[in-house]
Design goal:
Elements: H1 2-10, E1 25-31, H2 38-42, E2 51-53, E3 58-62, H3 65-86, H4 92-98, H5 111-124, E4 129-135, H6 142-146, H7 148-159, H8 162-171, H9 173-197, E5 204-208, H10 212-228, E6 232-238, E7 261-265, H11 275-279, E8 299-302, E9 312-317, E10 327-331, E11 334-339, E12 342-347, E13 355-362, E14 366-373
Parallel strand pairs: 1-3, 1-4, 5-6, 6-7
Antiparallel strand pairs: 2-3, 8-9, 9-14, 10-11, 11-12, 13-14
């Protein structure tokens, strides 16, 4: 999978339209595996968390999660300690956070991966790059990494809800700087989640082998991709991982109108240890299509009634390998959806935040969730 990402990065695709305003470099390849072989393949030194020039067209950024997290946490911890020192009253949540050492920062759910994704977001919006290729292989569950910003945002809101943060800042000036910092983290998490599901800026590519194991895994991958709303653009079938017929993967069932391209990557008899050989693979990573995918393509329709008689139906295309493992919950303005063991927060459209869930079902292609107004909070005419 790393080889496919590297080969896609060294390729020179035709770009649509003009480069981003101010972009003076072409491609940034990002790897988040501290043991990644990419530096050796590209013939450069490994320099964690620093951008290394490979060629005029390609640059490499090797991110180390722990180093990035502890460095960012050190700055935040100083702010926490200063808030505790200046406050005349005990702030349990702040005291708890301030007591977390840099070495223990990974105990906060999702923070390590969320800070990692924030760094990638910063590069994406810097205006320096025409494209960024991110390799998420070698780190276990890539969907947990991609969902980390939403996970951290939910954890912050559970530990210290925003309305309480604002109230504390109004009552205690010493807390205002801290609440501003936490709100900045919250906004960063929201920005990253929005960028990942934006079909105009992001294209997701799934790399699989062509054997029985990949055939079994494909529906599970698609379920996670649908749930997170990742704009899946291509499925890269790596023939070096297995030899088998394409029909075994069920890729022929993918609707061409969905914008998902199926590409085969040939197995070569030479070691892929330099950019020139990577180019021989002919890997092409299609550009973003502009089509929203999965939960990012959710729709809301109503029955045409008014007042408390109105009902709304929220739906989105969703693969479900095992419908019995679908679970739904509600946390404030978020819908908690668990699919195939992966839980994700789907922000509710504003019209549904004053509603309660009535029922839900899956028709084989899409999830449908019906809502009715909550009389206690529904506006009266």
């Amino acid at each position: 999978m790393t080889v496919i990402a590297a080969a896609g990065a060294v390729s020179r695709p035709r770009t649509r339209g003009r480069a981003p305003l101010g972009a003076d470099r072409h491609t940034l390849l990002v790897t988040v595996d501290r043991c990644s072989p990419v530096p050796d393949i590209l013939g450069v030194f490994r320099s964690p968390n620093e951008i290394v020039t490979v060629s005029a067209q390609l640059h490499l950024l090797c991110l180390e999660r722990l180093t990035s997290a502890t460095a960012s946490w050190a700055l935040f911890a100083e702010l926490l300690t200063d808030t505790v020192r200046r406050s005349k009253m005990s702030l349990p949540f702040v005291d708890t956070l301030a007591g977390i050492d840099q070495a223990e920062v990974t105990s906060l759910p999702g923070i390590e991966d969320a800070l990692l994704m924030r760094r990638i977001r910063d590069e994406a919006v810097s205006g320096q790059w025409q494209r960024i290729v991110v390799d998420l292989s070698g780190l276990g569950d890539p969907y947990a990494i991609l969902d980390a910003p939403s996970m951290l945002r939910q954890a912050l809101d559970r530990l210290w809800p925003r309305h309480r943060r604002l109230a504390a800042a109004a009552e205690r000036p010493a807390v205002a700087q801290l609440t501003t910092a936490i709100d900045a983290i919250d906004r960063d998490c929201a920005d990253v989640a929005e960028l990942l599901s934006d079909p105009h800026a992001t294209a997701a590519h799934l790399v699989l082998g062509t054997g029985h194991r990949a055939a079994r895994a494909l529906p599970h991958h698609r379920a996670s991709i649908d749930l997170l709303g990742l704009p899946l653009r291509s499925i890269q079938l790596d023939e070096a991982l297995a030899e088998s017929g394409r029909h075994e993967l069920g890729v022929d069932d993918i609707d061409v109108a969905s914008g998902i391209e199926i590409r085969r990557v040939p197995a070569l008899d030479v070691p892929l240890d330099r950019p020139a050989r990577l180019r021989k693979l002919g890997v092409a990573l299609p550009a973003p299509s502009g089509r929203p995918h999965g939960s990012a393509a959710l729709t809301v329709v109503d029955n045409g009634a008014e007042g408390l008689d109105v009902t709304y139906e929220l739906s989105w295309p969703q693969t479900l390998p095992d419908p019995d493992r679908l679970m739904l919950g509600r946390s404030g303005d978020d819908l908690l959806v668990t699919v195939d063991g992966l839980r994700h927060c789907v922000p509710l459209p504003s019209v549904l935040r004053r509603c309660v869930v009535d029922d839900a079902d899956w028709d084989g292609e899409s999830i449908h969730i019906r809502f009715r107004p909550d009389p206690a909070v529904w506006p009266r005419r």
